[in-house]
Amino acid sequence: MSSTMHFVTHLIFILSMLLLVSSDYSTLVSEYKNSTCYEPYCEKVAKRILDSLDKTVDPCENFYQYACGGWIEKHHIPKNKEEYSAIVELSEEVDKALKQILPNITSGDSETIKKVKNFYKSCIDTAKINSLGAKPIQKFLKKIGSWNVNAEWDANKWNFLETLRQLHREYPAEIFFTVDVDVDPKNRTQNIITIDQAKLSLPQISYFTNRPALDVLVEYATRIAALTEGLKDPKDDENLYRSIRKKMRKVVLFEMKLAKISVPKQAKRYARTSIDRLEKAIPEFPWLKHLESVLTPRTITPDDHIVVLSNDYLADLVKEINETEPSVLSNYMAWRMVKDMVPFLSEDFTNAYNKFRSELTGSTIIKSREDICYKYTDEILGPLMGALFIRNKFSPEDKSEVEEMMHLIIKAFERNAETVDWISQQTIKSVKEKAEAAVIKVGYPDYLYNETQFKKRYEEIEIQPNTFFDNVASIDKFSNRRTFKKLDNPVDPHQWVSVPHMANAFYVVTKNEIVIPAGILQPPFFYGEPIPRSISYGAIGHVLGHELTHGFDTLGRRFNKQGELIQKRTKWSEMSIKKFENRTKCLLKQFNRYKVGDKLHIDGKNTLGENIADGGGVKMAYMAYKTWVEEHGEEYVLPYLNKTNMQLFFIGYAQKECHRSTAKAIEDAIKDDVHAPSMFRIIGTLSNSEHFAKAFNCKANATMNPAEKCEVW
Asked: What cofactor requirement does the entry state (predicted)?
């Protein structure tokens, strides 16, 4: 045999063996996909799921208790909290990861990354902060004309309008009302001036009808004002302290009036108007001059459009201002600024705050300085913290996988729209166009991985490692400048409504935009390869479908595919609107029947939008997973659970909602939260799902498989 023939013979043999091995490998993979995975990573996830279950409960009677009973038994509410949940647990994991990265500046850090680490370092330096005492806040108050707890204050030299303009221009000040620049709800490509009511000194409006809470606020405000004037011990000048208390009591009484005219969040309405029309509606305040000053050097005209979110509040506010003496206005404005700056001052101030918080809420937990500084760094430099997270703790492959999942869910929504029996052909077209046009943002904005763009965005921020208060003030000014600059430009399509490391998800109705930050793309919401996708489709898949469905709930349907508010008519047919409303009534009545204890009923109307989104979300995620299986084949299952992947889908959906609450937290949530308590979100949603009943073989008329089911989408 020639050497050439010998070589060819060997080559044929080798190729044959390779084909055989390849064939055997494909068979092995195919068999493995239809079997049980006993690899360590599969066993770890299976144990996590198993530990959360309560297998003594029939899943067809109470699926929430079945899926979460073990989790509830093993997790306790922290002493300083009123609730604890799977998503809070995930947030803590994110925080833990960042806390390990934040304190250490390395040679590989860019100048921008060093800024966030130096900010944290300046916060940790309590020796420097304490040595400055009240000097930083005294210096700050001089810039705004001080306040009249100071003997130097002169009513003749103080100008209310100029002071308010200065504060709104230079700081994100929550005083009387806020001036912001946001997306125009009528034209999502443009930004527009937005005016809203400001926050108050207490966390909820209801506190202002609570006499003990008001007394606590008076004492706190008095203590902070005295410290600002250098009076550490009231006994050092009892007359001055009494004088300050008298003045701060007037401030609190004034804020009580503001609380009475404040509009609850759910009652706010978009009112798009012009500055000229606002001036005619509320002529007692110079709106044009105020906005010209705040937004300088931009040219503002009477014809410019603005959005007002609480018209009645502004009208009532101006009346209250005009009926209040200047000294009280001065003290209130100074107090609101000082109150927001207290956390960045010496321990005399922060100790006063901790005492106030304890008396107001009952919480006696004092966080470590490291935890406090982490919190402030996260709140103030969130995007930079997000950059730290994604560069160290997040995989771009996971981003791609979730984007594929979102694509399948959108396609599922479009297919579903063609099959529901209440929707007209005209409406189907509109719904599909809007779903297809949704802007999807997964993981993080791309500029965080582009060093040139990253540096340019934050080059104006000046951070020094030993000037904490000044660093905060510098960032506040930078934030205001950046916000107002948006008025000069079209909407930045790369702008995110959240930071990348946040464990949450959002639907932005004014942009038709779904935002899924990297922080939520971790267990129990998301498991990357090689864990069966059934769990992730049930968990994060539901979240994706939930946010998409918000575009077609009672509020979302009123906005078009660009996220613009449609004033007169929607593109839905009258018949479709009527049938949609009838279906929502079924859901409303269903949730109204749920109650906690004997008297506390869920508010079906207040939670309607979220309940619609939950039902649509789980259905679209299920359909998308079925499509994925059709394209890729059946997956292997996890060990020890004796569960199909369709059952794991619903377990994944429920276990991300595991939650423990105190009775008070549940009561507060039922009053104020647009979400139903977790138990009823799971039971209410899945009892409307034929897919769930089939997966768990629930008998007819079981609690989780009632004859009457409420389905909108």
From this structure: Zn(2+)
pLDDT digits (tens, 9 = 90+) for 62-104: 999 999 999 999 999 988 788 999 999 999 999 999 999 998 8
Report the predicted TM-score, pTM, of the whole model to 2 decimal places.
0.80
Whole-angstrom CA distances from 69 to 28, 72, 458, 510, 660 are 37, 5, 46, 39, 10
For CA atoms 347, 351, 356, 358, the dihedral sign is positive
> Residue 192 phi/psi, 5° resolution?
-145, 150
In a domain, 161, yes or no: yes
The domain spanning residue 176 has which CATH number? Answer: 1.10.1380.10
Number of domains within the chain: 1
Domain that residue 219 falls in: 135-345
CA distance 591 to 680: 8
HEC string of 448-473 equals HHCHHHHHHHHCCCCCCCCCHHHHHH
Distance from C-alpha of 593 to C-alpha of 602, rounded to nearest angstrom:
7
In degrees, rounded to 5, the angle at the alpha carbon of residue 474 between the alpha carbons of residues 470 and 479 is 150
As a whole number of angstroms, the distance between CA 249 and CA 229 comes to 17
Task: State pLDDT tens for residues 514-570.
Answer: 999 999 999 999 998 889 999 999 999 999 999 999 999 999 999 999 888 876 556
Can you read off the two tokens belonging to residue 462? Answer: 């000046």
CA distance 133 to 676: 46
How far apart are alpha carbons 241 and 223 in whole angstroms? 8
Helix (H, G, I), strand (E, B) or coil at 565: strand
158 located within any domain: yes
SS3 state of residue 688: coil
* Residues with catalytic roles: 547, 614
H/E element, 601: strand 600-601
